[in-house]
């Protein structure tokens, strides 16, 4: 199905439309898992970097609940355990928890029951939430649409994972029928595209659901270029394989060579060698090689082919850029959803549940401009000017703005919803496999250069300055001071948790004393800074100076003295009120300026002892700045008068809550200064309290 339009003339009709879209999505997602042979297969992985299938089966349902809780649309969880273990894990980010052996996965039947519970809640919300048309990003109904579109993505990605499963673990499904057409591969040829100016991005007036990375504006003057008439077919790619392309390192960049070294691949992933002949793996079967179907490869393989062909033909072939693809799209005269009819392309399962010949669907002389398989680009995904992260899902786009994720364009046979819109922007790491192939262009432009991206998100930049910038007014760096004080009280120094780690400075400082330190923050925008310092060796950010003036800063891991500590630290996205069970066995937990920002701090405090070893230390710092924007007043631990008129102080509530399990052994004030601009600073005093587990 197409993604919904946000406008309409009848609120009641729109509710029914959303409900129908939700049910179609939810049920199609469950049909995808019917491809797995039996319930035991749910606990298998398609490959080592991914979770077992049961994770993905539960993930899309818990997404609804977690986002609805976070946005305060609902107040109660259905199953906190599920909403923790199924919460995060789509891309192999360093902050994704892949410790599957430590997870106590539930039965498939139990997850099905949970999914039905979620379905009923979402159904009720669709019919009762406040609704005005058009639906906007600040509407509660936007979160429902977000959950639906998120599940649409997982319909496709789950099919890829199932396709990577061993054949004896999958079965045919009547819902997914493959194409029965194949022939010899057509000879590719080049078509000329004229120079033009391209404008990318959508505005607030956009009538379709869009992800945050689609909003904003980008303009580029695109020089004339030529583009291949067809997607690269299995037959065309065979020349590269037969020529030893996988064995010749000159066709691969450094990332590609590392990929070859780690994987040992010598062919595309869905080519199967049987008795000296290549066959082709579809979703649940092996068939004779369809030479005229598009080849399925990752971006590294696609670029290696382009280098091979460039050397052979003595012409510069590249993958298209995002802007060049838009020229191709406009040349093809394709109307955007909902005016585009599905019959015109191989997408949304309309024709097949597989690829099909590359010469079946034409658009003004070009084939498969949309549909069949996604097309890798040479463009790393970057935010457009005016980009603003949606607060409900800050880990959708931001983690991909790392110069390591390449855009895929054009959709595939399994794409639906937002995925098939003109303005969609999806990106994956270049070694990932999706339902993706490529076409090539002849251009005077080279592969997109990797550049330093200075963190410009105002809040994240402010915290980078706070944790990695200079000191002000004689006040020591707060992260360093807190870590130093906390470390003094720990008897054992094997493992520590920096909870509310923000951009990670204290995590590294704790690693000076502890063998292993895990940093957890709710915001992936923060977490990725610490992870970037570990992975790339630097942090770059734009410190606001005055008005629109900024000072770009870059701090290296060597300058900080952490180069020998990076193997001791790891970073994870997590909810302090509902952490995964594997976060435990700590000698120290340091919760930094956190408790007055939690939606229910009791959920953290009531169970924190279970995550500490005997004689473990809990350190809490907080300025006790209670605000209803973060915490509903009923959950405040202090800063109010009770029904008897008595003043309730946070430290007294902490004593009452923790007193049975902890001994308060130390308190002190700890100042910190946050620079907002060159002439504006926040000077705050936190109370630091140290608690020893009894």
What does this structure look like?
The chain is α+β, with helices and mostly antiparallel strands and 694 residues long. The chain folds into three domains: 159 residues, Four Helix Bundle (Hemerythrin (Met), subunit A), CATH 1.20.120; 253 residues, paralog of FGE (formylglycine-generating enzyme); 195 residues, 3-Layer(aba) Sandwich (Rossmann fold), CATH 3.40.50. 28% of the residues lie in helices and 20% in strands. It is built from 16 helices and 26 strands. The strands form eight sheets. The chain has a seven-stranded mixed sheet. Helix 1 runs antiparallel to helix 4, helix 2 packs parallel to helix 4 and helix 2 runs antiparallel to helix 5. It starts with 10 loop residues before the first helix and ends with a strand. About 1% of the residues have low confidence.
């Amino acid at each position: 199905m197409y993604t919904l339009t946000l406008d309409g003339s009848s609120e009641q009709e729109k509710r029914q439309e959303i409900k129908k879209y939700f049910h179609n999505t939810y049920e199609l997602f469950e049909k995808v898992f019917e491809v797995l042979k039996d319930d035991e297969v749910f606990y298998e992985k398609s490959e080592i970097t991914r979770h077992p299938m049961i994770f993905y089966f539960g993930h899309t349902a818990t997404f609804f609940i977690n986002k609805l809780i976070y946005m305060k649309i609902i107040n109660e969880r259905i199953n906190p355990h599920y909403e923790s273990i199924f919460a995060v894990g789509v891309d192999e980010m360093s902050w994704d928890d892949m410790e599957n052996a430590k997870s106590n996965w539930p039965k498939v039947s139990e997850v099905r029951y949970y999914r039905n519970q979620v379905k009923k809640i979402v159904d009720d919300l669709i019919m009762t939430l406040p609704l005005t048309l058009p639906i906007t990003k600040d509407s509660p109904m936007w979160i429902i649409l977000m959950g639906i579109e998120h599940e649409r993505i997982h319909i496709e990605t789950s099919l890829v994972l199932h396709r990577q499963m061993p054949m004896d673990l999958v079965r045919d499904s009547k819902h997914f029928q493959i194409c029965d057409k194949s022939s010899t591969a057509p000879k590719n040829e080049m078509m000329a595209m004229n120079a033009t100016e391209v404008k990318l991005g959508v505005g607030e007036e956009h009538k379709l659901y869009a992800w945050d990375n689609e909003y904003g504006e980008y303009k580029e003057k695109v020089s004339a270029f030529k583009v291949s008439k067809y997607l690269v077919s299995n037959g065309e790619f065979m020349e590269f394989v037969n020529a030893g392309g996988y064995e010749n390192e000159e066709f691969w960049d450094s990332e590609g060579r590392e990929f070859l070294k780690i994987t040992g691949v010598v062919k595309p992933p869905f080519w199967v060698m049987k008795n000296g002949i290549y066959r082709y793996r579809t979703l649940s079967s092996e068939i004779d090689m369809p030479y005229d179907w598009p080849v399925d490869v990752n971006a590294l393989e696609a670029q290696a082919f382009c280098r091979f062909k460039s050397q052979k033909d003595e012409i510069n072939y590249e993958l298209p850029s995002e802007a060049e693809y838009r020229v191709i799209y406009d040349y093809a005269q394709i109307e955007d959803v909902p005016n585009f009819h599905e019959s015109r392309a191989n997408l949304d399962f309309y024709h097949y549940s597989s690829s099909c010949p590359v010469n079946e669907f034409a658009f003004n002389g070009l084939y498969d401009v949309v549909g069949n398989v996604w097309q890798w680009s040479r463009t790393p995904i970057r935010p457009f000017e005016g980009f603003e992260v949606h607060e409900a899902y800050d880990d959708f786009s931001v983690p991909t703005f790392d110069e390591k994720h390449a855009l895929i364009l054009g959709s595939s046979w399994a794409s639906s919803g937002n995925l098939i819109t003109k303005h969609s922007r999806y990106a994956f790491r270049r070694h990932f496999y999706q339902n993706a192939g490529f076409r090539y262009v002849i251009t005077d432009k080279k592969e997109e250069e990797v550049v330093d991206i200075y963190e410009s998100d105002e809040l994240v930049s402010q915290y980078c300055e706070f944790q990695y910038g200079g000191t002000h007014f004689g006040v020591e760096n707060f992260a360093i001071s807190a870590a130093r004080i906390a470390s003094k009280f720990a008897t054992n120094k094997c493992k520590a948790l920096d909870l509310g780690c923000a951009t990670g400075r204290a995590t590294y400082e704790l690693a000076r004393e502890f063998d292993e330190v895990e940093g957890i923050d709710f915001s992936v925008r923060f977490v990725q800074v610490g992870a970037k310092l570990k992975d790339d060796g630097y942090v770059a950010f734009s410190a606001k100076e005055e008005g629109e003036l900024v000072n770009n800063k870059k701090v290296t891991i060597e300058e900080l003295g952490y180069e020998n500590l990076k193997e001791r630290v790891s970073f994870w996205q997590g909810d302090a009120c509902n952490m995964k069970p594997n976060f435990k066995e700590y000698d120290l937990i340091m919760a930094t300026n956190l408790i007055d920002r939690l939606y229910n701090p009791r959920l953290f405090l009531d169970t924190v002892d279970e995550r500490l070893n005997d004689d473990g230390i809990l350190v809490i710092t907080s300025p006790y700045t209670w605000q209803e924007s973060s915490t509903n007043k009923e959950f405040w631990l202090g800063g109010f008068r009770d029904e008897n008129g008595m003043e309730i102080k946070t430290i007294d509530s902490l004593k009452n809550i923790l007193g049975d399990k902890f001994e308060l052994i130390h308190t002190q004030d700890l100042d910190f200064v946050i620079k907002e601009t060159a002439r504006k600073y926040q000077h705050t005093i936190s109370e630091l309290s140290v608690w020893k587990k009894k």
